[in-house]
Amino acid sequence: MTEIKLFCPATIANLSCGFDVLGLCLDNAGDEMIVRKVTQKGIRITKITGADLPLETEKNVSGVAAVAMLEAYERDFEPITVGFEIEIYKHIKAGSGIGSSAASSAGAVFGINELLGRPYSRKDLVQFAMQGEKLASGNAHADNVAPALLGGFTLVRSYSPLDIIRIDSPEELFATVVHPQIELKTSDARSVLKQTVSLKSAIMQWGNVGGLIAGLYTKDYDLIGRSLHDEIVEPLRSVLIPGFDLIKQTALENGALGSGISGSGPSIFALSRGKETADKIAKAMSEVYENMNLPYEIHVSKINPDGVRIL
Hints:
- Keywords: Amino-acid biosynthesis, ATP-binding, Cytoplasm, Kinase, Nucleotide-binding, Threonine biosynthesis, Transferase.
- The protein is an alpha+beta fold.
- The chain contains ten helices and eleven strands.
- The strands form two sheets. Strands 1, 2, 3, 4, 5, 6 and 11 form a seven-stranded mixed sheet that branches. The chain has a four-stranded antiparallel sheet with strand order 8-9-7-10, sandwiched between helices.
- Helix 1 links the parallel strand 3 and strand 4.
């Protein structure tokens, strides 16, 4: 096999209470990518459609992630005598808050790993994809790339050493995500955060993280909903997102288990039980932004159990 075509899924990170440690994988929103083995050594990005992104390897998240992987491969196994070309077909807008950079980073390392005969596990690939995230945001976080590669929900228990736990999603759980058509850079969204939090807020936050994990394992939808509360980050970031409070209120009034900021924003997510409720929430969210005359995109998706996949 010398060429592979991939679906690189969008993701929702943080999930209200789990800043930088929780994420989930979406099923029907994502990019496509072609990775090709060639005789000329090195990583080359030969084509990008759907976004104005740099082709230079060292300036593109997929290139940086791929280089990190090849450097590790040569340390772990043997010198590489071939190279790889990458074509990226972007459908996730940069700065949307649903893991645009993570999709590219995860797709690149997954594709190259397949063409090399799978020397690394999907979980091993997370550390390389994180280097793309570092280029994008200044921080090598895994809350988007982990679910993009592993599927389902993921919990980053530790960054040093990296320890990721994958969690299956309850079958009836659906996500609705609305993206108001403004760009909010992850680096800008991080700049509004405080470096310290009160003990009272921390206790509430880690209680909700534990509650959400317990709710996922026990398929307790009400517990999942009660746990989707952000005491620390959402109050600071929500002011950057037009109509946030009204969108969240509307989602809850239409049956959402919980709602919050997707990643660093400006997308807003809601989780619900069943597609019918998720569609109802999508319609209500749409009406809010239509009344505000603000362009938007909306996605209704089940939770993707597989992550990046071969097309």
